[in-house]
Predict the structure.
Amino acid sequence: MNRLPFPAQAAALLVLLLLAVALPPSAPAAELTHWVALPMLAAPHGVLLAGDEAELRAAILAANAATGRPRIELTADIVLNAPLPPLDNTTRAAGVFNGAGYTLDGDGHGPILTVAAAARVLFEDLLIPGGGQPEGATVCGGAALVRGEAKFDRVRLEGNSAGRGGALCILGSGSITIDHSVVAGNSAAEGGGVFVRVEDGGGAILSVYDSTFEGNRAAGLGGAIHVTAWEGNAFTYIGGSTLHGSPAAGGAGLYNSGNAQARDAALD
């Protein structure tokens, strides 16, 4: 193999170096784009999530405007600064208010919840304390005022107060079903746990199944339940349930007046 003499090698190397300097620099490689997958909490279609008071108010307004079957679901305990807007969806599809085991605390405001005459709502898996006003106030229903239809399933209504219906109140032709629930430690002037009054010749229904009323108190009549129907009819059905420890001036467990009828009540 023929080799260039050393001076010739040096000259060739010098030429290569000059060419490298003369050539334009190569274009920089394109910058890499990085994609990061972040966790995202998204509600299933039709579910309105609420983790604070502002979100809950917005969820109720959205549920009222929904055309299908609205569903509100809590994602945290909530303490209110004021009563919530009424649930007044006018479709016949029953809305759902799922507490997911969380607490909706009225913090002395009430009624916490209001179900309008045209609305149907299922409340489930929820603790509702702290609703209402002092017993001398005129408010009806410390935890909830119902003029439409409401069902409370696996709900604990505890430590609420009002002038009438420490926990729950039916006015007009509303109906309430209490199922697998507890109504405890509520107080009112009339109807320590529940107060029912029929208005304008209508009819009201209170149904209690597999539930417990305990430690409710009324300064007047109906330590646990007070039902009045002078201008219409009221029906109270109680099955598989117990009403006890509910002192009152009269009708400690259940007080009926006017055209009010009760069946299958277990009282002590």
In short: The first helix runs from residue 6 to 22.
